[in-house]
Amino acid sequence: MIEWQDVYKVVVAMVPLYVALMLGYGSIKWWKIFTPEQCDAVNRLVCYFTLPLFTFEFAAHVDPFKMNYKFIGADAISKVIIVAVLAFWAKCSSKGSYCWSITSFSLSTLTNSLVVGIPLLKAMYGQIAIDLVVQSSVVQAIIWLTGLLFVLEFRRSWSTGTDDVVVEDLPPPGKDLEGNNNVNGNGNGVGVVVSSGTKPSFWYLMRGVWMKLALNPNSYACIVGLVWAFLSNRFHFEMPSIMEGSILIMSRAGTGTAMFSMGLFMAMQEKVIACGVSLTVFGMVLRFIAGPAAMAIGAIAVGLHDDVLRIAIIQAALPQSITSFIYAKEYGLHADVLSTAVIFGMMVSLPVLIAYYAILEFLH
Questions:
Q1: Judgement on whether residues 91 and 172 belong to the same structural domain of the protein
Q2: 3-class DSSP assignment, residue 320
Q3: For this UniProt entry, which segments traverse the membrane (predicted)?
């Protein structure tokens, strides 16, 4: 049963995040420390250095041989359900959009498990909850965040990719390109663009996307961490202290710098609720209703029961992943919606999650 000291532990875990957020916000809004270009540089620092090292650090310390594969299967089924619904909506509805499907997937499935989930679910269900939350975080980083990264890279390549532009120098009147007589010259020898306007082939785009992912540490940080976890747990050795210290010095800044970057982004918007009230409500519905509902279906489908079933549903209702905002900002896709989802999701998550806990205990 949750007591006041347990609620206090969650508040203690969340308040420092808002301190980092307000420092970033004040750096632009009040103190005018950063320019927009410098804000982009901060976001890239977070995206390519602190978050990958943060992801590697917690993945490297999980025990892959003690993972609950039914729980992971339930999580996979829930996300497949969401993907299927969003793909159908994008293809068959007049209001459907693949770009909004990407954002809606983030809103309904990607959670901030480590910061909020661990202290709250530990208070609810003890050590078993911590183990399951860490497992879901590792799977989220390896499969779903990497998949999101792939889709965002593909979208950017598709939207910007065109066939090579060719510039030809036209000859003066009376001469062709080889110097022969030609009465159709343009009179000044100025080059013209031959802009075919067609998109590159699918395989050309795929090759470019994979090349970019290979250079992006977010795409393999968790995989490398999990490989290390397999080896260290199989052969019973620990990470050398010099290596662990080198990782920790940056990874410990991961969540804080991500929140700081979000504060910078908020300060550059005209409104604190950057996406408007209707989209905020839309994001909260996806976050706290659609995601847990899909997870309940997946959990029941694989036969989860008792506390594991309740943990699965509650962890699906955790607030929005901070990493999803960093990706949205980096790739220019509805960052205002994701920033609002992170901020307000954390504000309302505590009463919502306690309500879920009370309802599930009552039904039990």
A1: no
A2: strand
A3: 7-28, 71-90, 97-120, 132-152, 209-231, 246-267, 279-302, 340-359
CA nearest neighbour of 268 among 18, 27, 19: 27
Q: Examine the domain organization and report whether 58 and 154 are in the same domain.
A: yes
0.85 exceeded by pTM: no
Query: What is the rounded CA–CA span in Å between residue 74 and residue 304?
Result: 8
251-283 per-position pLDDT tens digit: 888 888 888 988 898 888 877 777 888 999 999
pLDDT, mean over the chain = 84
What is the tens place of the pLDDT at every residue in 241-259? 999 999 999 988 888 888 8
Number of Cβ within 10 Å of residue 1's Cβ equals 8
Which DSSP category does 65 fall into? G
Domain span at residue 191 reads: 163-198
Strand partners, 169: 191
Which residue, chain included where needed, has tokens 């509650």? 314
End-to-end CA distance of the chain: 14
Task: Output phi, psi for 204, to 5 deg.
Answer: -65, -45
